[in-house]
Amino acid sequence: MIPPLLSICIPTYNGARFLQVTLEALLPQARDVGSQVEVLVIDDVSPDNTPEVVEAARKYGPFRYIRNKFNLGGNNNEIGAATKHATGEYIWAWNQHCLIYPGALARVLGVLANNRHLDLFYANFRCAEFPQHWPKSAVGGYAKEFAYPANEEFNDRLIEHWHELIKGSSAVCTQSYAHIVKRGIWKEFWGDTYIKENYVDAATTYPHTYMIVCTSFHKPSYYIGAPTITIYNGAQTWGATLTRCKVYVFGLPDLIMHFSRQGLAYRQLVGAKEFSKSQLYRVALDFFREKPRNASRLTAKLLWRSLRYPYLIRPIWRGFIESESSLFARQFISAREAVTASYQYLFYRCRPARWFWSKVAK
Known about the structure:
- The protein is built from 13 helices and ten strands.
- The protein is an alpha/beta fold.
- Strands 1, 2, 3, 4, 5, 6, 7, 8, 9 and 10 form a ten-stranded mixed beta sheet that branches.
């Protein structure tokens, strides 16, 4: 039996509210392209009504439903989907809240079929906000509300080296659903690896991107410009503040370090670090405002980590001060405002300053 060209893997956990719409958008397109594609839903022992939702979706098209015997965790579930369950030549690893664009699957398959000498493809996507933009139904595909495209370039093109795609403006290629990768790369790189703890480094935070960096950083890739799916910010399974702290304090800086070791251009490294700092600032702001359990211990880890990556110091400090979560932070802001007001008065607003600037203007 000839294996399919593409396996779309959807690891899921407690995702029933998303899967209903995700599957009704995808499965009619999968049915239309026949044996070229297989769809896999890999359930990590969800305690919600995922089995019922999945069963009801069978009317839209064919797919395989796999329910793990015990909870593996998100990364192991994603890796296992590609290395143990999928049979396609290429793997497209989705989140449970990806909504495919009408006609996009046939378009993607056409690109793959015409470029089978390549190991890597990058599929552009649209970003929306959850729950504001999440639809109640999207049978056959979704093309309505969204916030912005991940990349502004909509023309397909061959990329000489995969690393040319790394940009801070599109989250430095950290999204699993942006990459379509040959299954052989997944199997050879991960084998029977089992990740014991998530979000401690690049490999346990971004296993898909880390794999590409280690195996294919300098390989050619193909950029599919017209957006293929819509993803939903705010619906991520790692959206809790403590988890986001680990992502942006441990995972992302480690990934950027691997970029640097592979020889990423200085301009791109600067962009990656700016993206990292912007995300960490938002996380630090939430962290210091919420003051979660074990906050003191994690704060110590934040500070210790920043010694290894000095560019993390400023966003952590800024988040701490602007959170106004302590007397020191509030006093610091008051002092800063007083200094700023004094500076403005002495150099711009007082009579001698106004006289000076009037003479300069002449």
